[in-house]
Amino acid sequence: MVNREVEPKHRTLLVGLAHPDDETGMAGTILAQVARGDRVVIVWLTRGEQTEAFGPIPIEEVARRREEQGHRAGEILGADTRFLDFADTAVVHDRESVLRVARVICEYQPDGLLTWGDAWIRGMRHPDHQAAGKIFRDAITLARIAKVVAPLPPHRKPMPVFVLRDEHSQLPVVGVDVTPHREKIAELAASYLQGIGFGDPAWLEGRLRQIGERWGFRYAEEFEAWESLPGGYASLLPAPPLPGVPHPDRIDKPRH
Questions:
Q1: Whole-prediction pTM
Q2: What whole-number distance in Å separates Cα of residue 68 and Cα of residue 2?
Q3: How far apart are CA 118 and CA 101, in angstroms?
Q4: Looking at 65-122, which runs of residues are DSSP E strands?
Q5: What CA dihedral angle connects 176, 133, 207 and 242, to 10 degrees?
Q6: 247: buried, middle or exposed (CB in 10 Å: 19+, 13-18, 0-12)?
Q7: Does 1 reside within a domain?
Q8: Is residue 45 part of a domain?
Q9: Which pLDDT value is given to residue 98?
Q10: How many domains in the chain?
Q11: Per-residue pLDDT tens for 213-241?
Q12: By residue range, what is the domain housing residue 67?
């Protein structure tokens, strides 16, 4: 396993998702980042209000319960949590959506993004997942443009992207050792299993073990690495940059 630690500076990882419970597939990675002393902020675009897990009750009550679940997840993971007000099953990638998330990025000034990527397998290819990933990824660019995000300060420092990996992906991969965090991962899954019936313990155990075997860890989670070196790590951040990246970062100088 490669140690990503290069300096003691604390970092902020932004986790951009569509619905509460999406974070189940990256819970160990969130916990690993928090254990390093870093800040993790989970932002859900929707409240997941279209679930039928609670039976025939008003949709606003469903949304309230789902928000409670998300905030409880944050408590378990040691992460900050925030909900936006996009409509469940109706997330659309357009300029206004990207701009809203760009302003969120400017607020938090994160050092990395973990979100949804392109996917082909059922569940992962949910339209909200696909749209949310593209919104968060595109927002990185708009967040750099001062005239677009004013009066907020632009966010121009490097912000490597990591996305949930679909089985068909051929992109570079990072594996995160989540073995030390297995108990908390189970606690989060149990919370969602009780609340909405998602998070089967046998499925979770098999998934973490299978990925772990690929990396030589007991338990692991893995993601595509879009702008950093692949490999096995203890946390996503700090991330070693790809050598020879052609786009220079200008953090302190104004753009013309």
A1: 0.92
A2: 37
A3: 19
A4: 80-83, 112-115
A5: -30
A6: exposed
A7: no
A8: yes
A9: 98
A10: 1
A11: 999 999 999 999 999 999 999 999 999 98
A12: 12-230
